[in-house]
Write the structure tokens for this entry.
Amino acid sequence: MPETTPASSADAHDSNRRTYTIGELARRYEVTPRTIRFYEQEGLLEPERRGQTRIYHDKDRVRLKLTLRGKRLGFSLAEIREVIHLYDHAPDGDERQLRRMLDILDEKRAALTQQLRDIQALQNELDDVEARCRDSLAVLSRQRASS
Amino acid sequence: MPETTPASSADAHDSNRRTYTIGELARRYEVTPRTIRFYEQEGLLEPERRGQTRIYHDKDRVRLKLTLRGKRLGFSLAEIREVIHLYDHAPDGDERQLRRMLDILDEKRAALTQQLRDIQALQNELDDVEARCRDSLAVLSRQRASS
DNA sequence: AGTCTACTTTACGTAAACGTAAGGCTACTC
DNA sequence: GAGTAGCCTTACGTTTACGTAAAGTAGACT
């Protein structure tokens, strides 16, 4: 179950050698075309052009997916762009750049680790509320039984 | 290490029966006073008033901590407020309300679960980039050795 | 030829989450 | 008693991430 969208197991199949219109991608990932164009404007996507219309390849689709994932985690588009560019132009040449990138990676990883802790903490609090709810419900049910 | 801030293990000690000024809280959690006042305006905090100045108790501090945690996870202040109010006025009376709250809890939990999946996916991608970086570095180092 | 339908650009509008400046009160402290 | 520090309110400004409307184009159907 790699996907959030209804597309289910289609991912493996239509990877590679397919193209998409903006509308197809929009429906698939439940965003508007406007959003997709905006991401392009922000340097997150670079679709091909056939005349005036945009043609999206799987590379673009994956980028979009990555972008939406980042958004769900509360990253800004600027941060997501940074990661995407990390991913795409891993600098094969310069050693200083490579080491700097490893630093950035560490930083991002730290952020994710913090998020994991945050999620755990919130889950505990939800557990707490739920327990109190169920207690209250149990009390109500007992009251009904003894009436 | 329950805390993000430098306060380290102070939490257990100064819980209960202490009060804070807005500046103290701001420094402690690395936000501005303006932010704290804004959260109050949005119904996330309800500090005591001594004359004109705000007095924060541990209850408020915990709420602030919860709020910032939610923010790090990309929740909106409106969503966070919802959770906080869940936490505070767990409706002890109405059964319908209780069941509705359990539904909301399920929903929030689902969101957190999705976040966990997102984080895993991103971590994998970071691993990927890192591996390629290290490969490149290794190549460079071999080139140097053979020169 | 006309009419959908889906794409395009341009551009102004908007909600959320604060930043920032202006002006004022209160309580030390030199 | 003049300053300085820390709090306050009011209010306008700003950034991010789009929404939404207007007007135009390009292909497919009838």
